[in-house]
């Protein structure tokens, strides 16, 4: 994997909006000041997509110091700084909710033979109900809906483990459908999205990947599914322009935050994560629902909503370390925020009977979000596209969920 980011200094505790109903936070170790993030997937040429999963590596530990070609010891326990299902549910005020048997689909490229086994380890660790093929909770299929699963790819398998663990954390009783595209080409991935949309009970489809800004006239039909919430990660490169399919007019574009426990009544603080993708599409139409929010963009602006994505404040995940073995690690990137939002869409139950696109809901229900008003993703000509502030902004959209009523 490729080392892409290093950070020094203490992590600041930044206040987010307050939810008086969130459970009290429990003290958690602070992340290391000496760390780097590793991309799960390599960069790809035009016409293909890269997954956005980022692995947090603590360089102050033996495992962290062993990067640079040496073997890293596998971890048999979750990282102490990694978010747990209880953390996610507390931070986003997900309390006492049931999915009603709805399914969250994730679309990823390539195969992952040990997916069911590894998901079982994750769910058992945190006391979540079993989700297996035999009990009907987990379904795995190829991009055409069959069982000819593609070859293993370690980076995309890491991505898939992050996706299914994130869904489990936000919605423990949701069913999970994994559709594996043959390659990371946008046509294959799009075919997998269309296949997912045809399966019974699917309320949301998460896409934690992207390429450069592309036109809906080329790929949009794959993502246009009224009545199903289709989410897409905005990317991990900050303000560098739009990423497709997040820049599609048919999806909910999901940005990222840094999420830390604090002493507020909510118990959590959030700021825009510096790596969160944000921008203004040059080719796709603006969302009508966003017209009154002053995006400063005449076309499609992103993000629409956000959730935790900073790998330093990321999720504890049980992921493959080889084709046969797996271990605990901490992951972030907007690959984390997309499946979290998809799971919360499924919990809301607001999309299934609608003929409208689900990406309008956060704008019409913006009062149900924590407004993230600090942090930036870089330098831009229109400050809203890269600088968080009150109301809509590019890094975090209308904010992060305070319960699921806004979705």
What does this structure look like?
The strands form five sheets. Strands 5, 6, 7, 8, 10, 12, 13 and 16 form an eight-stranded mixed sheet that branches. A five-stranded antiparallel sheet has the order 1-2-4-18-17. A three-stranded antiparallel sheet has the order 3-9-11. By secondary structure, it is an alpha/beta fold. The protein has helices at 62-65, 85-91, 115-125, 154-170, 186-197, 216-219, 334-348, 361-364, and strands at residues 2-7, 35-39, 50-51, 54-58, 103-109, 138-142, 175-181, 202-207, 209-212, 229-233, 243-244, 252-261, 268-272, 279-285, 299-302, 305-308, 315-320, 326-332, 369-370, 400-401. Residues 1-27 and 64-71 have low confidence and may be disordered.
In short:
The chain is α/β, with parallel strands linked by helices and 407 residues long. It is built from eight helices and 20 strands. Strand 17 (315-320) and strand 18 form a beta hairpin.
Chart the SSEs and their pairings.
Elements lengths: L1 E6 L27 E5 L10 E2 L2 E5 L3 H4 L19 H7 L11 E7 L5 H11 L12 E5 L11 H17 L4 E7 L4 H12 L4 E6 L1 E4 L3 H4 L9 E5 L9 E2 L7 E10 L6 E5 L6 E7 L13 E4 L2 E4 L6 E6 L5 E7 L1 H15 L12 H4 L4 E2 L29 E2 L6
Parallel strand pairs: 5-7, 5-8, 6-7, 8-10, 10-12, 12-16
Antiparallel strand pairs: 1-2, 2-4, 3-9, 4-18, 9-11, 12-13, 14-15, 17-18, 19-20
Helix pairs in contact: 2-4, 3-4, 4-7
């Amino acid at each position: 994997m490729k080392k892409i980011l290093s950070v020094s200094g203490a992590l600041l505790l930044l206040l987010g909006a307050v939810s008086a109903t969130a459970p009290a936070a429990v003290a958690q170790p602070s992340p290391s000041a000496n760390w780097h993030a590793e991309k799960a997937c390599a960069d790809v040429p035009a016409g293909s997509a890269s997954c956005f999963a980022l692995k947090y590596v603590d360089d102050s530990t033996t495992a962290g110091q062993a990067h640079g070609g040496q073997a890293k010891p596998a971890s048999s326990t979750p990282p102490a700084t990694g978010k747990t299902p209880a953390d996610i549910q507390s931070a986003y005020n997900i309390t006492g909710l049931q999915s009603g048997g709805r399914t969250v689909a994730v679309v990823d490229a390539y195969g992952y033979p040990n997916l069911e086994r590894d998901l079982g380890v994750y769910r058992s660790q945190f006391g979540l109900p079993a989700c297996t093929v035999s009990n009907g909770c987990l379904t795995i299929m190829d991009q055409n809906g069959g069982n000819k699963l593609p070859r293993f790819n370690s980076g995309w398998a890491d991505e898939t483990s992050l996706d299914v663990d994130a869904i489990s954390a936000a919605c423990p009783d949701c069913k999970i459908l994994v559709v594996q595209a043959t390659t990371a080409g946008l046509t294959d991935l799009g075919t997998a999205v269309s296949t997912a949309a045809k399966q019974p009970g699917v309320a949301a489809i998460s896409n934690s990947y992207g390429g450069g800004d592309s036109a809906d006239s080329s790929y949009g039909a794959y993502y246009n599914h009224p009545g199903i919430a289709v989410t897409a990660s905005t990317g991990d490169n900050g303000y560098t322009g739009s990423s497709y399919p997040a820049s599609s007019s048919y999806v909910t574009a999901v940005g990222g935050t840094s999420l830390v426990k604090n002493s507020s009544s909510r118990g959590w603080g959030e700021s825009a994560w510096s790596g969160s993708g944000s921008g203004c599409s040059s080719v796709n139409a603006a969302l009508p629902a966003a017209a009154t929010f002053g995006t400063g963009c005449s076309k499609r602006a992103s993000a629409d909503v956000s959730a935790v994505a900073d790998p330093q404040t990321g999720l504890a995940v049980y992921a493959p370390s080889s084709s046969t073995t797996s271990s605990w690690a901490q992951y972030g990137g907007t690959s984390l925020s997309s499946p979290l939002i998809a799971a919360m869409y499924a919990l809301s139950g607001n999309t299934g009977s609608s003929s409208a696109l689900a990406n309008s809901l956060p704008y019409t229900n913006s009062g149900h979000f924590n407004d993230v008003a600090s942090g930036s993703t870089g330098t831009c000509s229109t400050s809203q596209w890269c600088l968080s502030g009150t109301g809509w902004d590019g890094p975090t959209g209308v904010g992060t969920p305070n319960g699921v009523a806004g979705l």
